[in-house]
């Protein structure tokens, strides 16, 4: 970074400039080193002294006393000086506390203050979803959520649909968590709260008397929102669909049927129409199967190999295989398989492609929680890893990728992704 001319950074960097060391290797640039394991500080070195209070080095056995070594006199760490130098032990213990509590350490060296990464996931979910679900449940979404405006005519035209677009995607994201249902734990009680709010929010979205009513004939984007909403309802049939009142169910079904007049483009939009038909099949018992068949046939033709589909006939180097294409193909085939529809045998072929693509996504996540900003819609951020998350949720990860590996990678992404600003994810 020094040689590239980067002299200042917006965030604090956990590191030092080693350019002078490259010029003069005899320099000693750092006097303190921390041993981190599982996000927790387990040892420290200062100068010639090494202190290992809990886990120790590879020779440490359970039940042994903490270890203190002087590397200048004992490079092999064979002479434990813990009892001989209590003042040095105390000094190094205080230094360890400083590192353990610091908030400027990178994720790989930061111990979750709640002692549980899952708690951080829940906190992030609430930060992102609450402004949408809570306000819509109160019929205040359009009133309470500001819309960023642009001077471009295209961007200005999207102001009308921005609130609606937030709803389907939000519900698709939180649905697997909601489907776990309520229980007596704090998390279970929180789920119960959001299940009720989401059902109320959906009722308001299709109520013509509501301020937040989404007019199904006003914009083609209702097709997109319906597809993502159905994706969520398929993931949470017990906690969402079954908890909706009959009027809301009927209104949703009528809204979905109204999208049949909207002709999709010859690209990933075919899957939006297919998802709507799958929602109708699952929740009303009838569908227009040729719409589903066309979407699948087209995407079979657009397969490029090694887990990648084109968005249309041409390959687009972006994350639409994760945003839309592969998750929705899997959902469509899952509905077909469940209802014994001819052509569902393609499920096994697609699953292999899905897993292969997810494997590549996992490799794109850097150890610092960054990933390549490829192509269109990069503002969807961690939606880029929907396919990886879904494969993990399905428990279909390849043998060379462990569930904990994916969990850690996605957690690292959460820590490094921009947080909601002013309570909103922009």
Helix content percent band: 40-55%
Structure summary, number of beta strands: 6
Radius of gyration: 26 Å
Task: Find the structural class using helix and strand composition.
Answer: alpha+beta
The major beta sheet can be summarized as: 4 strands, antiparallel
State the order of secondary-structure elements, H for helix, E for strand: HEEEEHHHHHHHHHHEEHHHH
Approximate shape: elongated
How are strands sequenced across the largest beta sheet? Answer: 1-2-3-4
Termini separation (Å)?
30 Å
Kindly report the average pLDDT value: 86
> What is the beta-strand fraction?
5-15%
Separate helix tally: 15
Low-confidence stretches: 56-60, 102-115
Short description:
By secondary structure, this protein is α+β, with helices and mostly antiparallel strands. The protein has helices spanning 19-23, 86-101, 117-137, 141-144, 153-157, 162-178, 186-205, 221-235, 246-258, 269-284, 289-301, 320-338, 346-364, 386-393, 403-416, and strands at residues 32-37, 40-46, 49-52, 67-70, 303-305, 308-309.
